[in-house]
Amino acid sequence: MAAACKAQAKTPVGKTLWRILGVAVIAVGGVVVLLALLTEGQARSALLGGIVGLLANVYAVWRVYASLADASAERTLLNLYRAEFGKLVIIGALCALAFALIKDLAIAGFLTGLVTALLAATLGAITEKSSDT
Q: Is residue 93 part of a domain?
């Protein structure tokens, strides 16, 4: 398993995945540290929200970038819709689990971590796309 992940990381898809998600991981880490320093009880919730966002982003980035490059425009659009819909389902399911199972979940911290992960991955994808040109 580790050898397969290491080999995948050296492919163009793997590099793109790690760059986009790396930006999100750094952003979530920064928010968690900032909330740990400034507030009490929000950092854990922000970390959980960030993890939910990162897991959803892993699926969406993998779905988009692992597809064939020579696919038709219709196929590519269908793949983008599938990736986004799957990402929303994952976020909904994991948020429902978090709210149902975790005691003392701070909603503001959770949403801060979730939104940070989602926006940072989007910005990572934008910068990845512009760096290829």
A: yes
- In the structure encoding, which two tokens stand for residue 126, read together? 């934008």
Structural domain total, the chain = 1
Contacts of 75 (CB under 8 A, 6+ apart): 67
Q: List, in order, residues 6 or more apart from 50 with CB less than 8 Å away.
A: 24, 28, 31, 32, 113, 114, 116, 117
Task: Give the contacts of 99 (CB within 8 A, at least 6 positions apart).
Answer: 105
Are 38 and 58 within 8 A, CB to CB? no
Residue 26 lies in a domain: yes
- C-alpha torsion 52→114→54→96, nearest 10: 20
pLDDT > 80? residue 129:
no
- Global pTM? 0.80
Can you read off the two tokens belonging to residue 11?
Answer: 């492919």
Longest pairwise C-alpha distance within the chain? 51
Asked whether residue 38 is assigned to any structural domain, the reply reads yes
Q: Residue 88's domain spans which residues?
A: 12-131
Would you say residue 81 has pLDDT above 70?
yes
Q: 7 lies in a domain?
A: no
Q: How far separated are the first and last CA of the chain, in Å rounded? A: 33
